[in-house]
Amino acid sequence: MSGPRLTDLAEVARGLPFPVLFHTTEHLHGGFDRQYPDHLPPRPDVGTPEDLNALIRTCREHGHLFMPYTNPTWWCVNPRGSTFERVGEAPLSVGLDGRHMPESYGDPVGVQGYTVCAWHPAVRAANDVIREQFTREHPVDILFQDQVGARGHRWDFNPAAPHPGAYLEGVHRIAKTDSRYVPLATEDGHDRLIDCELAFCGLSFPWLPNRRGVRDRELYWESWLSDAWRFEPLALWLAHDRVFFFHHNLGGSVRDRLDLSISLVMGYGLSWWTRAGGPPHAERDWIDRLCRVQQAVGPRCAGRPLDFFDHRSPLEVRSRWGDLDIVANLGPRPLDLDDGTRIAPEGFLARSPDLEASIFCRTSDGLEDPRGFWRIRERRDGQWTVWSAGPETPP
Question: What is the pLDDT of residue 118?
Answer without folding.
Answer: 98
